[in-house]
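Thread: "does anyone have the structure for this chain?"

Original post by V.I.:
We have the sequence but no experimental structure in hand. Need at least a predicted one for the grant figures.
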Amino acid sequence: MAIAYLRPALAPHAIDGLVEMAVYEPGVATVTPLVRSKEVTAPTDADSRAADLFVRVGVESSEMYVAFVPDGSSEWQAGLREGDRITTLDGRTQTLWTRMEDAIVAGAGEEHSLTWTRDGVPMGGRFQIREESWDDEIGQPHVTYVFRSDHWLPYAADVFVPNPNRLSYAIGRGVEETVSVVQFIGVGFLRILQGRVSLSSVSGPITMYDIAGQAGAKGTTYFVWAMALISVNLGLINLLPIPVLDGGHLFFFLVEAVRRRPISLRVREVASLVGMGLLVLLMLVAFKNDVERKWDVIVAQVREIFA
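Reply from O.Q.:
Generated one for you, tokens below.
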């Protein structure tokens, strides 16, 4: 049923005692489910009113119906299957899937009790979500808990909106992304200098190769973004005030401008040697971190070769 209003409503209107509709302007309205009877004491919160409305009109929300359960998962072993309707988690009635997921992840180390109905028959079981380990783009290990079962959710394809200023939009977005990446990398440098981030986060060419490969597998957009990130990273490193780098030359120019006379050749030679030593040390640290991250893979490949 479609209802169109040409002018704003001055006051909310009840429709068949089921909902209360208030229209503010064409295309903008609020619909509030009403309780069953004014004489009957009933909860007045939105969830209870909605549930009461569904019962009265014979409509049931699909929010808590299960659409996907991974084979072999803990909830699968507990008996949960596609098409089941979850009713309670740890004895509490569930009406929103996202709230239930948040509660499960928040108590990741605990065993949960779950009840559901299948063809109207109440069922239940106990489960505990598993710990999952993964490595990020720079090879740092992480541990997370994920509830991978999902519910049925209507999906509509995104409608692309024509952009008459594509070139200016692309340039603006490129500048914004570049500034964001520069800030991110700058904060990383600062945290390393402060000792709040370990030198083990420094990566070398092996990690860059892995990042490029993973980004390329995801698509062209991810690959281009990863290449831009690496380029900005290398550019910022090149601007560090270390002799033999462009940043070191700029630092010498600044010192000469302040002193109003050139720096001696001997000082430049010593500074260049020190700068080269720092770069070699940095490359060794990065290469060491790369090898440590890939050590298990390297050992496994060597064993396969000589097996």
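V.I.: this helps a lot. The longest helix spans residues 265-306.
O.Q.: and The chain has three domains: 13-57, 66-151, 179-306.
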